[in-house]
Amino acid sequence: MCGIGGYFLKTGASAPAGFLDRMEAALAHRGPDGSGRFTDDGAGLVHTRLSIVDLANGAQPFIAPPDCGGKVLIANGEIYNHSALRAELCQGYGFTSGSDCETVLALWARHGTDILNRLRGMYAAALYDPATSDGVLVRDPFGIKPLYIAETGYGIAFASEIAALRAAMGETGDPDPLHAACIIDRQHATDDLPAFADIRRVAPGETLVIRDGRITGRHCDSPLDDRSAASSDPGAFQTALHDSVSAHLMADVPLGLFFSGGVDSSAILAALADLRARDGSGEPILTYTVRFDARLDRGGDDETDVARGLAAAEGADFVDVPYGKADFLADAGLAALACDDPAADYAILPTLHLARRAAGDVKVILSGEGGDEFFAGYGRYRAGMRPVGAKFPTRPGAALRAGLFRNDLASQLAARYRKSAAAMPSMMTRLTDRDGALAALQRHDIEDWLPNDLLIKLDRCLMRHGVEGRTPFVDRKMSAYGFALPVTAKIGNGDGKRLVKSWLAERMPGCRPFARKRGFTVPVGSWIAGEAQVLGPLVASQPGIAAVMRPEDARSVIENADGRGGLLAWRVLFYALWHQIHRRGADPRQPLADILAEQA
């Protein structure tokens, strides 16, 4: 796990002075264990390393041997099937390490870009051929690892994070107001709506071919397109889960698990315990659970005792990490700093806090993201499958419904929602092709909500503290298996994730998987309400907020944060903090009032 960045130049062009120095400094938190560079007349590449596999020999860039043209690679991620790929496709290649990432270079050097769809893992990589000055950028098919590009006058610039790319380029452009409205209304933005007009995400699964500093080819790896039949037998699910969790244990450093006691993290814990027992490993499983004190922080769900009991039953070590209002006040600015690609998910707050604590013990964390998307756990899938009165995830959010945005932004946002709604399954499809209808609802989340909210949150919060996040439910084999299941294995009797829960009910009955789902909520509304008299006027006067809504409306949102208005108040506050930090250069370590009051 690392940070990558650099540029591919047009003929005769040069990058801004100090580009790679600024890039390396901005990516240092992603790779605190070392750094490396490659430069020639056509490209400049920089890599900051978080050492996970082959600690002694895995430094990057990797350079292919002369018989393979001296091609170059920098990569961020893990390739879980790298040993099998080496044995099958890379015999005779002059490897210099046991690093999984070097396998990507060998595959490309031997077989070209088409072979990259054989990779099982999470990755963002840049490849360069000094002989032709051609480059390639590639991102894993579900967007677990981030990658951003900018098309400039001197060529293609790229980086693992927007903030690093902007720092290296020296750009200070204003964020897009429509993007801001989208963040406030639905907490994340789609790939076609970037925060800054000159920077975009490389899409999940996208491979870009670059020649003479210009994109000349692109294709996409879509592992879900092949929906071959999948077994609904709990034993088949267990086999798939064990296989994925086992693959995600590849590391030469300690690992842990973010554990809520819910269905997804409990399934991963059960699989970990099974694998430990099978292999005879005495190594303890470290679990980390955030605890909200419900007596002090009204409105927060606290299931710590349940999680503690489940961990004990599986022989896991349980780390209880308390979180309260004081932590929120200290962390909110740092959360906005971490999420340079803004995702106003309130779960970034405890995730950042857990990452800070886990960094003292481990360098890799497993997490349950993806279980709901691939196995259909969300209630919105059941709502979207109704023959009559279906409710889709493309509906306008609370801010648009309340008329908070400028008229032009409201019209544009509403038009986007209508366009998305048109792609939702029709009544006839919901009646005659329930498998296809559910797949359409899931694919919407898999292509948008998952990479642009949940995975941004996980990547940025963990990498801010030099910890790698892994998601066994988001995996080329496991995800395709879950997605291909029939609707009867996913939803029924008013419930979701039927197959996962059926297996878990036998394997870990104490989890009570069929009990009513409480969800994961953070009492952010009550925390904001307690500071509303100070924060309200400051948020209202913040220029990023004034660009999208009337100041008096923004102040009213903050002052009505308690109760049902908490999520909207958090999104408004988050965006105000994000704009102050990423556009105006405010110090995120200050008290919230000082961040909001700081002038450019």
Q: Helix proportion of residues, in percent?
A: 40-55%
Mean pLDDT score, rounded? 95
Largest sheet: 6 strands, antiparallel
Beta-strand fraction estimate:
15-25%
Strand neighbour order, sheet with most strands: 2-3-1-9-8-10
* C-alpha-based Rg, rounded: 23 Å
Number of strands: 17
Which residue ranges are poorly predicted, with pLDDT under 50 across at least 5 consecutive positions?
A: 295-300
Compute the separation of the termini in Å.
34 Å
How would the global form be characterised?
globular
* DSSP summary: helix tally: 24
Description:
The structure is a single chain. The strands form 3 sheets. This protein has a 6-stranded antiparallel beta sheet, with helices on one face. Helices cover 42% and strands 16% of the residues. It is an alpha+beta fold. The chain is globular and about 65 Å long.
Brief write-up:
By secondary structure, the chain is an alpha+beta fold. Helix 5 (177-186) packs across helix 14, helix 10 crosses helix 16 (434-463) and helix 20 (532-540) packs antiparallel against helix 22 (551-559).
Q: What's the helix and strand layout?
A:
Blueprint: E1 2-9, H1 19-26, E2 35-39, E3 43-49, E4 62-63, E5 72-79, H2 82-89, H3 100-111, E6 121-129, E7 134-139, E8 148-151, E9 155-159, H4 162-169, H5 177-186, E10 200-201, E11 206-211, E12 214-220, H6 234-247, E13 255-258, H7 263-279, E14 286-292, H8 304-313, E15 317-323, H9 325-338, H10 348-358, E16 364-366, H11 371-375, H12 379-384, H13 398-401, H14 407-422, H15 427-432, H16 434-463, E17 468-470, H17 476-484, H18 498-507, H19 524-529, H20 532-540, H21 543-546, H22 551-559, H23 566-582, H24 592-597
Parallel strand pairs: 13-14, 13-16, 14-15, 16-17
Antiparallel strand pairs: 1-3, 1-9, 2-3, 4-5, 5-6, 6-7, 7-11, 8-9, 8-10, 11-12
